[in-house]
Write a structure and sequence with these properties.
Layout: H1 3-17, H2 24-40, H3 45-61, H4 70-85, E1 101-107, H5 113-126, E2 132-136, H6 144-155, E3 158-159, H7 168-181, E4 186-190, H8 199-212, E5 216-222, H9 227-239, E6 244-248, H10 257-266, E7 270-274, E8 282-284, H11 287-295
Parallel strand pairs: 1-4, 1-5, 2-3, 2-4, 5-6, 6-7
Antiparallel strand pairs: 7-8
Helix pairs in contact: 1-2, 1-4, 2-3, 3-4, 4-11, 5-6, 7-8, 9-10
The chain binds guanosine-5'-diphosphate.
Length: 296
Amino acid sequence: MFESLSERLGGVFERLRGRGALGEADVRAAMREVRIALLEADVALPVVRDFIEKVTEQAVGHQVVKSVTPGQQVVKIVNDALVEMLGSETAELELDVSPPAIIMMVGLQGSGKTTTSAKIAKRLTEKDRKKVLMASLDVNRPAAQEQLATLGTQVNVATLPIVAGQQPVDIARRALQAAKLQGFDVLVLDTAGRLHVDQALMDEMKAVADVAQPQEILLVVDSLTGQDAVNVAKNFSEQVPLTGVVLTRMDGDARGGAALSMRAVTGKPIKFAGMGEKLDALEQFHPSRVAGRILG
Ligand code: GDP
């Protein structure tokens, strides 16, 4: 995760650390390199611009250049700015309502939505001891509902029985009723995805959200798509009140552009990172730990 970005930044800071005194020109030269590294990592340009401005101002303005360990000071300033860029605090799921709490999963087809639904359900069951029900509202993709049922069996989580021919809003109603009657704590609704953002997808998603009134609407996006992932998030958040983002395939993401731009561009916190195909490969997204990994 973030190997190429990490390596680039590591090189810049090693050169800084290796020097005794640092002048303003040295800091500015280093920041030019950081800027290029972030742009190569596919971080959105306005985010990079803000970041460099903030860090440069602090590094030049403070006592950094006069300090005995100026290189380390600059790294600390960069670290703090990265944490802020990633969202500062760890964003938790907000499920503190009278049960069932409802989590609605949205996203494009292939983003990892169904897998992530099962990963979250497994985590809530095992870690938080919740009684979880999952339901697939994907009536477009053949066998999507069966896929969720299979995953449910693998993670020991109940899935709503499939009724052939039922439409998404009706499935949502049935799931809600089943969750209430059978005393489930959490209901995870896996909605249909499309290959591209289109109005039919948005309309269906809004209709389901109206019926289900979810506490959490989580957008699942593929981190490997970089700034496209951020644009998808922008589009979705204009249509439904997203409460957070799950970035999948972070295990293969050497660049990190989506993770670094997401919060600043969309205002939405990243709540989880998908770290592999296995159903336990889901991590809570801790901004300070992620910044730590980037800076090595
Ligand atoms: P959906 O169409 O959005 O429901 O996508 P799926 O859940 O069916 O996932 C598509 C593919 O991506 C599957 O092969 C998953 O195993 C894989 N996948 C999902 N999340 C991750 C992840 O975090 N890392 C990796 N490496 N693969 C993932």
